[in-house]
Design brief:
This protein is mainly α. It is built from 38 helices and no strands. It is globular. This is Importin N-terminal domain-containing protein. Keywords: Cytoplasm, Nucleus, Protein transport, Repeat, Transport.
């Protein structure tokens, strides 16, 4: 079988040739995996072979070692582990040889595959000489630039794939030495220097002890800062990316270098190419994030003498703020038309907002002169920048500091809504929205919005929304205007809700401190009145999700009073009052059942409303509430509920934020209807398994995607826990076929450092639920998935709820393993 010809045929424009070739490759792989992998590595390493066959050989080889789906990834890992050591050795030799190839694609692919093999073997204490061999390429006299570049790439990828604890400190030291040397000005090849900077970026997590050593830290920082002034744009950009990562990871070590870094960032923002300038601004945004986190950690305590909070932003403020304000004047034409645009102006404004949150009142006097100097200039860039600056500092400074400025400037902002430039109007509408969101409080002593100016405000906003209906501003200005109206209304609603909540809490406190013998009669009357009002809430007409939320809030407040009354009366000689009201109370709590047939029509419509995903999301939450309230009485509606939920999960048009709560809802339904959930297992379980597999495709460099991934994980675990608890009993064996995948998924989450505490607790809980439900039938599952020992040991060290849950789960597993 000529592997070269098959690989070429697999890329043929002729579909028939491709199909035959792909079949041959699959057959070779299935019949003799070790030789298949070896043949691919030889093909990749042979400079005499066609670039096309080598490229495909590398791709297939890489995909034979790693996958995004956690279950498949584990399968590929096990397949590699079982390959004969002599064949694995030959494959690795071919990969290392390929780093010196004259073909860039072959070198690049080989560096990636080396890292994939390392990710499997190094944690198993195998391929221990890899780092030494790679470093040998860097120190060999006369080593070519392409070999050095590919080697540095491989080192960077290895650091990306392997956890810091799996490399010895002397290996880390040697890697950092080679990488930093590759970055130095003495290296003549720009390609090598760029690869070295990128490798350092990936290796920073390994450098904790090196940054703790002043001499080593000084050397690393010196080289990084020098590299930030390289003549090549991509190298400067990569160097600033390293500085951003260092700011996040090693904030506590930055103080000696801050003046140098400020000069570098200032020069970059002022005159460098935009990709470099963006990273320079990002450095200061990252410092803000770190210091905001420190302030939240201290939570108002006196941290003036803190050894970890260096107040870099406060110290740099007089120079930093003017630098950021200048970026606001570098807008692009029509940047308001695209919400995804990210340029130096947007970056500077975002950073300015973070600075305001970091230093509070201290920023105001630095920004307001810029606002006043530019707000009336003929150039629209100046007017827009001034408005953007003002809107950016509305969160952070105190209300007392901002209130006079907003009160005096509100009329001007309203006038600016008629500005001839759409970008000025867009930013002004955004700023008004920020004012209403952050500072609008009708219950304050000196409210920004009052009966005198409210008609004008509404008139301007409504007029602006009409003005844009027939113009190109619709996608942006109209959206911002609607947002401003929403926050304006929300302020009044929040005030009303706060007053109502305060009133009920005051009522609760009166009941708590009352003297029962004297007040028993009054409390008895209060109990009747609260029950009457709660009964009336079931007659409230629900026309929107807002109506539903108001109804739920009012019911929660009334139920809170009932709880306080019952607790008070139960601990006294007035228990007879509760006994007399018991029938009424039970009737009240079961009252909701008779409304289900009519209400379900609206609920089902809400679940199907994927275009207005907020409505759909609220409806999913209502399903969970109903399941907890009605328990098995919800069974008649479950077929229709499950059908709609499964369709929602398959609907690509539905906003992704709704899907995690749907998984959790599966658990709520199973808990409510118990073993009756059996009929839904063939449909629900593949959805959970598919979602678990898709988690591997999320971009881990995107914080939003990491948060979303954690939401999905939590939803999946809550679904499994609910299903396991609900189906516990005679039909528990139905869950055995799903146990292996559940444990594989749980292990993948355990290995993922991006999991948050809520996910960790949910993962631990599901281990206990699995053992509790399956009992001795779970022995083999836990016996062949020993990761749980390490996972629970890690969690048992926690003093919080995670530790308590882990202790319970450990008990359940031990109990299951001891049973016969």
């Amino acid at each position: 079988m000529d592997i070269t010809q098959i690989l070429l045929a697999a890329q043929s424009p002729d579909a028939n040739h491709r199909t035959v070739a792909e079949g041959n490759l699959t057959q070779f792989q299935e019949q003799n995996l070790p030789n298949f992998l070896l043949s691919l590595s030889v093909e990749l390493s042979n400079d005499e072979k066609p670039p096309e066959s080598r490229r495909l050989a590398g791709i297939i080889l890489k995909n034979s070692l790693d996958a995004k789906d956690s279950a498949k990834k584990e399968l590929l890992l096990q397949q590699w582990v079982t390959v004969d050591p002599s064949i694995k050795s030959k494959i690795k030799e071919s990969l290392l040889l390929t780093l010196g190839s004259s073909v860039h694609d072959a070198r690049h692919t080989s560096s990636q595959v080396i890292a994939k093999v390392a990710s499997i073997e190094i944690p198993r204490r195998e391929w221990q000489d890899l780092i030494a061999k790679l470093l040998g390429n860097m120190t060999t006299p006369g080593a070519s630039a392409p070999l050095k570049q590919a080697t540095l790439e491989a080192l960077g990828y290895v650091c990306e794939e392997v956890s810091p604890q799996h490399l010895e400190q002397d290996q880390v030291n040697a890697v950092l030495t080679a990488v930093v040397q590759g970055m130095s000005q003495t290296e003549l090849s720009p390609e090598v220097r760029l690869a070295a900077v990128k490798a350092l970026y990936n290796a920073l997590d390994f450098a904790e002890s090196n940054f703790a050593n002043e001499m080593e830290r000084n050397y690393i920082m010196k080289v990084v800062c020098e590299t930030a002034t390289s003549k090549e744009v991509d190298i400067r950009q990569a160097a600033f990316e390293c500085l951003v990562a260092i700011a996040s990871t090693y904030y506590v070590h930055l103080e000696p270098y801050m003046q140098t870094i400020f000069n570098l960032t200032a020069n970059a923002v002022k005159g460098d190419e935009e990709p470099v300038a963006l990273q320079a601004v990002e450095f200061w945004s990252t410092i803000c994030d770190e210091e905001i986190g420190l302030q939240d950690e201290y939570d108002g305590a006196d941290d003036a003498n803190s050894s970890v909070h260096f107040r870099f932003i406060e110290k740099a403020l007089p120079s930093l703020v003017p630098m950021l304000l200048e970026t606001l004047l570098k807008q692009e034409e029509d940047q308001d038309q695209d919400d995804n645009v990210w340029n130096i102006s947007m970056s500077g404004g975002t950073c300015l907002g973070l600075v305001a949150r970091t230093v509070g009142d201290a920023i105001v006097h630095l920004v307001m002169p810029f606002v006043e100097a530019n707000i009336t200039k003929p150039d629209w860039h100046c007017r827009e920048a001034a408005t953007f600056a003002f809107g950016s500092i509305l969160e952070g400074p105190s209300v007392e500091k901002l209130n006079p400025l907003v009160q005096s400037g509100l009329d001007f902002l309203l006038n600016t809504m008629s500005d001839p430039n759409s970008q000025v109007k867009d930013t002004t509408a955004w700023t008004l929205g920020r004012v209403f969101e952050l500072l609008h409080s009708p219950v304050s002593a000196n409210p920004i919005i009052n009966n005198a100016n409210l008609p004008r405000i509404m008139g301007v906003l409504l007029e602006s929304s009409k003005d844009v209906e027939s113009s190109k501003d619709v996608p942006n200005v109209a959206e911002k205007v609607c947002g401003a109206i929403y926050f304006l209304a929300q302020g009044y609603e929040d005030a009303e809700s706060m007053l109502r909540a305060s009133a009920y809490e005051a009522l609760n406190e009166i009941v708590r401190v009352s003297n029962i013998p004297e007040t028993a009669g009054i409390i008895s009357q209060l109990l009747q009145e609260i029950m009457r009002r709660l009964n009336l809430t079931f007659d409230i007409q629900i026309l929107s999700s807002g109506d539903k939320e108001k109804q739920s809030d009012l019911q929660a407040l009334l139920c809170g009073v009932l709880q306080v009354i019952i607790q008070k009366l139960s601990s006294s000689d007035a228990k007879l009052i509760i006994a007399q009201a018991a029938d009424q109370l039970m009737h009240l709590f079961l009252h909701f059942v008779k409304y289900m047939p009519n209400f379900f029509t609206y609920l089902e419509a809400g679940l199907q409303n994927y275009e207005e995903y907020q409505v759909c999301s609220i409806s999913v939450g209502v399903v969970g509430d109903i399941c907890r309230a009605l328990e098995d009485k919800v069974l008649p509606y479950c077929d229709r509920i499950m059908t709609v939920l499964l369709k929602d999960l398959s609907n690509s048009m539905l906003n992704r934020s709704v899907k995690p709560p749907i998984f959790s809802c599966f658990g709520d339904i199973a808990l409510a209807i118990g073993e009756n959930f059996e009929k839904y297992l063939p449909y629900a379980m593949p959805m959970l398994q598919g979602a678990a597999g898709l988690l591997g495709t999320l971009d881990q460099s995107d914080d939003d995607m990491v948060d979303y991934g954690n939401q999905v994980r939590r939803g999946i675990f809550e679904a499994y826990s609910g299903i396991l608890q609900g189906i516990k009993g005679p039909k528990a064996q139905l869950m055995i076929p799903y146990g292996t995948h559940l444990l594989q998924f749980t292990e993948a989450v355990f290995r993922d450092r991006s999991r948050d505490e809520i996910v960790t607790k949910a993962a631990v809980a599901v281990l206990g639920d699995l053992a509790d439900t399956l009992g001795p039938s779970s022995k083999d599952l836990f016996g062949s998935n020993l990761f749980h020992i390490e996972f629970l040991r890690e969690c048992l060290d926690s003093d919080d709820e995670v530790g308590e849950t882990a202790s319970w789960a450990q008990g359940m597993i031990n109990q299951a393993m001891e049973q016969r």
